[in-house]
Amino acid sequence: MASVGRDNSSVGGGYYDPHFKRTLWYLIAGMKGGANRAKILEVIKSQPANANQLASILRVDYKTIVHHLKVLYENGLAITDNKESYGATYFLSPLMERNYEILKEILEKIGKK
Q1: What is the DSSP string of 17-82?
Q2: Residue 4 near residue 79, CB atoms below 8 Å
Q3: What Rg, from alpha-carbon coordinates, does the chain have?
Q4: Tens digits of per-residue pLDDT, 93-108?
Q5: What span, in angstroms and rounded, lies between the C-alpha atoms of 89 and 62?
Q6: What is the domain class of 18-110 according to CATH?
Q7: In angstroms, rounded to a whole number, what is the distance separating the alpha carbons of residues 27 and 37?
């Protein structure tokens, strides 16, 4: 049986943190640049990458990617071993990995996927 949050919500058959869901909604649907952040999360889910690689894959300015990676990192959605290093590789955080279904749900609701 799926664990259920206080608002009786479950994602992917398991419990999710309502605070995390609100944060993700804000970062993806509530702020300018959310579409780029969602694309970055989708890319690093399938293949961890550095800012330069992400800029090339997504065809977005390098400085824009760096900004979005900083936002994702500061909010616990992306991790790296050495964010100060040029070429640092970013991965989904364990929290984001466990709650990836929430991102898919948000993208469906806002019509981005």
Answers
A1: -HHHHHHHHHHHHSSTTHHHHHHHHHHHHHS-B-HHHHHHHHT--HHHHHHHHHHHHHTTSEE-S-
A2: no
A3: 14
A4: 999 999 999 999 999 9
A5: 14
A6: mainly alpha
A7: 8
pLDDT tens, residue by residue, 32-87: 899 999 999 999 999 999 999 999 999 999 999 999 999 999 999 999 988 777 88
- pTM for the whole structure: 0.82
Looking at residue 15, what DSSP letter applies?
-
Residue 5 CA to residue 10 CA, distance in Å, equals 6
Phi and psi torsions of 53, nearest 5°: -65, -45
The two tokens of residue 44 are 């690093």
The crossing angle, in degrees rounded to 10, of helices 51-58 and 62-74 is: 120
